[in-house]
Amino acid sequence: MPSLKPDITGFTRQELAKKLIELGLNSVLVKPVWNGVYVKGATDFSQIATLSRKHQLLLADHFTLGRSTIVRDLISRDGTRKWLLQFPDGHRVESVMIPEQDRGALCISSQVGCTLSCTFCHTGTMKLVRNLTVTEIVAQALNARDKLCEWGKKRTDCVCTNIVLMGMGEPLFNFDNVSTALKIIMDGDGLGISRRRIMLSTAGVVPMIKRVGIELGVNLAISLHAVHDELRDELVPINKKYPLHELLGACRDYPAASNARRITFEYVMLKGVNDSDADARELVRRLQGIHAKVNLIPWNPWPGAAYQCSTRDRIQSFARIINDAGYSAAIRASRGDDIMAACGQLKSDSEHSVVTR
């Protein structure tokens, strides 16, 4: 049964101060509470040693301070980890930790299910159940720190250095909660993950893109996957509402883009569908005037899918055309595909009626 008490990890620093004042406490307590939760990793108010016993009990009477339940913890042969998280209402999402030699990216979800119905994506076969709350988004970062034993470490010694919103759901359909959660994650006195180490991926919710740049200033990734509206309408159906010329126009105007911080265009390579040299040349033409780089993603299979991955030679030829035009085109290595943790493979069993919040 979900607790009726709010979880304190859903509050910004300002909201926490307001709640403390409402309880008759001094807002000066924000600092020890914030430090206890986001630096020390407390999961119970009694663990925040800088609070008096009286204050610990008072906070416990009015708030919760917990974690999402980790139902499954899978480790790939390449070191990628996938966590299936369950929330108090029984719904579930997946998050993925992708370690590198000197860094690591945590791929987090923003919704239970997805509304986009992208035909090449396993998550797209799910219905949208609901948006994740601020607490549930932040919890994915907290759970990762728990499992990686990173509380109390210097940031330079942590594996979880980057956040990518590329998990289940469309972040810009849950912008308010995603925005608040990222501000908590970016807080320099807490988890302290810089906006330059956060990437938000969208399939193209054009009206919200400018707000991302102004209010968050994080790195932007666009799930493009096609260079003609007819094909993109099929692969990424939101294109019917926000066609390519509108999407790419919003990218040209993105406030946080620069030569140093280019917009990433994600392009899944589908054999005989979107992988011709002509497609590559059209992609180059479409990207003119945008601070851009391209991630070419070998398509990752999932049960019942109707696609095949482009051959290695075809992907390399595609990349060569983009690189020769002066853009960076990286071929992304599949990570975690043996545990269904690779790009486009995430899916939980929370498929119920559509209820958003």
Describe the secondary structure blueprint for this structure.
Elements: H1 13-22, H2 30-38, H3 53-62, E1 69-75, E2 81-86, E3 92-99, E4 104-107, E5 111-112, E6 130-131, H4 134-147, E7 162-165, H5 175-186, E8 198-202, H6 206-216, E9 219-223, H7 229-235, H8 244-252, E10 263-269, H9 277-286, E11 292-298, H10 312-324, E12 328-331
Helix pairs in contact: 4-5, 5-6, 6-8, 9-10
**Distinct helical segment count:** 10
Strand order of the largest sheet: 1-2-3-4-7-8-9-10-11-12
CATH-scheme architecture of the largest domain: Alpha-Beta Barrel
Order of helices and strands: HHHEEEEEEHEHEHEHHEHEHE
Gross morphology is: elongated
Poorly predicted sequence stretches spanning 5 or more consecutive residues: 350-357
What is the assigned CATH homologous superfamily of the largest domain? Aldolase class I
CATH topology of the largest domain: TIM Barrel
End-to-end CA span: 18 Å
What CATH first level of the largest domain would be assigned?
A: Alpha Beta
Mean pLDDT: 90
Give the oligomeric state: single chain
Kindly name the structural category: alpha/beta
Beta-strand percentage?
A: 15-25%
Q: What is the gyration radius calculated from CA atoms?
A: 21 Å
Largest sheet: 10 strands, mixed
Number of strands: 12
Helix content: 25-40%
| Count of spatially separate domains | 2
